[in-house]
Amino acid sequence: MNYNQKAFIIGMIGDFLLQQIVKYHPKGDFAGLKSYFKIHGSFESLLIAGGMMYFFGILFDLLKQPKTSFNLAIYGTILDILFREFRLFPSLDGYYNALTPLQSIIWAIIPMNLPLLFNPS
User: Fold this and answer.
1) Between the CA atoms of 110, 113, 114 and 118, what dihedral angle is there, to the nearest 10 degrees?
2) Fewer CB in 10 Å around end: N or C, the chain?
3) Do residues 73 and 113 make contact, with C-beta atoms less than 8 angstroms apart?
4) How far apart are CA 48 and CA 52, in angstroms?
């Protein structure tokens, strides 16, 4: 499985886990994502998360840079800043309002790097 395929699966798993956290969180929300899941629904948000991760992998391929943790961290940071500042995904306003810029950058870097951990020997 290549990076993009792993990223798709990780995006879907991560979204599913976030849906469960939001659903069972004592405050009824987590990281401002309740409104996002209400807008998109469970299945649609799974596909959005997986598709976005796959798409981000394709965009990174166009840069022709090696997929190292550092490069993916820089890439994730740039994407997060673009999404926050230009509201590329308005349904994520609750998320960006709930988190500081540093927190959302960290949460962008983590899933970008997770596919690197799953390399078969």
Assistant:
1) -170
2) C
3) yes
4) 6
CA distances from 118 to 1, 101, 106 (A): 9, 28, 20
Q: Which two tokens stand for residue 58?
A: 């394709």
Tokens of 106: 């960290």
Q: Tell me which of 121 and 102 has the higher pLDDT.
A: 102
What do you get for the CA distance between the two ends of the chain, in Å? 12
Distance set, CA 8 to CA 29, 57, 66, 103 (Å): 25, 9, 19, 22
Question: What is the pTM assigned to this prediction?
Answer: 0.91
**Residue type, position 92, single letter:** L
Provide the residue range defining the domain that includes 55: 3-117
- pLDDT band (50, 70, 90) for residue 120: low
